[in-house]
Each structure stands twice: as C-alpha cells, then as structure tokens.
Amino acid sequence: MKEFDRYSSAFAFGLVENGYAPGDKIVLWLEQSNSAEILVAQMGAAKAGVAIVSFNEKDSKDALHQTLKESGARGLFFSPSTNAGDQTRADIVGALLPSLSSSYPGDALNAPAYPNLKSIVQSGHGNIRGVIKFKDALVYANP
After folding, report:
1. Amino acid 143: pLDDT
2. CA contacts within 13 A on the Cβ side of 129
C-alpha cells in the first residue's frame, strides 16, 4: 500500500508539473494488462483533481477522435503496442496526431484538431516521438 501511495502521488505531482489543474481531464486508453498503471493513474489523477475520461469501442480510431475532441481532454495515457484491428494503438495515435512524427523532446504538442490536448503518455518502454514514457511522467517529491 505504501508503494501504491508513493507512485500515485508521483503521478499526481507529474500532472501538476505538466500544468494540469483541478477540473482538467485525461483520457485513459490502457490495456487490462497495464492494471498497475491504470490504478496508479486513476488514483494520481484523483489526487491532482483531474477527471478521468473513458469511452467505448476501445480499438476504434473514430471513437478516440470523438472522445478527444468532445471531452476537451488535456492529456492522453495509452498502451502503444496493443493491437487495434490490423494496427496498434500507437499507429492510431500517430494517424490522429501526425505532427508527433516531427516533434522533438521538449516541443509543445501541436494538435490543431484537439486544442486542449497538451501531453501524451504511453505505458510502453520504447520511445515514441512527442510522447512521454509513463516512468518519466512520475515526479517524486515529499508530500
């Protein structure tokens, strides 16, 4: 329980450090195999006052597009290697946000279709341009 509190607090501090404020929203698009990350993200978001956005049709590009557009979410946290039909979720995110392929670390997210979207976090271990690894989204500090 102590480790869970530590990691969820680190996720909350990471959200705050990335400019999230109470009332902001984050879309969680994580695979069930990422249950630890899901729990940490949910509790961390709650600690930071950030609302979780969920949606149906988990492997639909159109459903993700509509959710990001209609929710006004500030962030997206997804499982990149999860298969979504004949592609992966990373492929879907890349198709919806083509500017990611030319971004560099530290660049502001350029997403005209989703003007509120400011950060994307992924649960994988490989690098994806314009996307933060979950482990790098955690900020450890004294409570």
Report:
1. 60
2. 12
- What per-residue confidence (pLDDT) applies to 32? 82
Neighbours of 5 (CB within 10 A): 13
Domain that holds residue 31: 2-137
CATH code of the domain covering residue 68? 3.40.50.980
Q: Enumerate long-range contacts of 95-101, CB under 8 Å, 24 or more apart.
A: 95/61, 96/61, 96/64, 96/65, 96/68, 97/130, 99/130, 100/128, 100/129, 100/130, 100/131, 101/129, 101/130
Looking up tokens 């450090």 gives 17
Q: Count CB atoms within 10 A of the CB of residue 93.
A: 22
What is the dihedral sign for C-alpha 74, 11, 121, 82?
A: negative
Give the end-to-end CA distance of the chain in Å, rounded to a whole number.
16
Predicted structure pTM score: 0.92
